[in-house]
Amino acid sequence: MQKLKSESLSRRKFIATASGLMVGNAFFSLSSPLSLGRSFIQKAEEDLSAEDLEWIKKSSMANELNKYFGQGYSCAESVVMVALRYLGKPEELVWAAAGFGGGLYHKDLCGFLTGGIMGIGFASSLLDRPRREAKKFCGDLVKAYWKWWESRFPLHCSEIRTKGTGSQVCLNLGLLSAAKIEELIKAVKNKT
User: Fold this and answer.
1) Buried b (16+ CB within 10 A) or exposed e, 153-177
2) Predicted structure pTM score
3) Residue 26 maps to a domain
4) Residue 73, φ and ψ in degrees, nearest 5
5) End-to-end CA separation in angstroms for the chain
6) Burial of 125 from C-beta contacts in 10 A (0-12 / 13-18 / 19+)
7) In angstroms, rounded to a whole number, what is the distance separating the alpha carbons of residues 85 and 147?
8) Which of 46, 54, 140, 157 is a plausible cystine mate for 107, CB 3.0–4.6 Å?
9) Residues 118, 94: contact at Cβ < 8 Å?
10) Which residues have CB under 8 Å from 109's CB, separation 6+?
11) Phi first, then psi: what are they for 63, rounded to 5°?
């Protein structure tokens, strides 16, 4: 059996290494959009307008997004999950969005865009109307969401999260998307 070679670590090296790790950890915590210690919405305050922040703060879906986005759920899954919870639908339906994160896993259409459209579809199932009428109403809401999106953001992940861009841009998009989807879902609920 081979004897393991052990290195001794001098006290000076240990203190220097430990100090470096603590400083590095502190820097990461401050720069990470999902770091602990700051509320989810506070992280967006630097990048969003006061009007957007006020809108987000009033949205229960936006406030719940932090439980999912970046916590094992993709962009599409997180916005679908908050829509499902808002609608009182079975949470297992979130699997419908599993392949849509990261722009369909190809940096294509943003998952907050596609997941939001799924949320509108789930909400449209509440309409007590003939299918054709409910589907038209759903289509009108999807068109409104798409138009809102295009007026503010690029459609594709590759244009949203460009090289050197941190995940904060995705976080902000998620908060705004959740607030907009909640607004559109309320339009469905008002029709029921």
Assistant:
1) bebbbeebbeeeeeebebbbbbbbb
2) 0.75
3) no
4) -115, 140
5) 75
6) exposed
7) 25
8) 157
9) no
10) 100, 103, 155, 156, 157
11) -70, -25
19 inside domain: no
What's the structural domain count of the chain?
Answer: 1
Q: How many residues does the chain have?
A: 192
pLDDT along the chain (192 residues), means of 10: 47 47 40 38 65 95 94 96 97 97 94 97 94 95 97 92 85 95 93 80
Task: Provide the domain limits for residue 150.
Answer: 40-191
**Do residues 53 and 66 make contact, with C-beta atoms less than 8 angstroms apart?**
no
Instruction: Output the CA–CA distances (angstroms, integers) from residue 106 to 57, 100, 167, in the order listed.
Output: 32, 9, 17
Structural domain contains residue 124: yes
**pLDDT tens profile 1-13:** 444 444 455 555 5
CA distance readout (Å), 166 to 17, 25, 144, 158, 163: 27, 18, 28, 13, 9
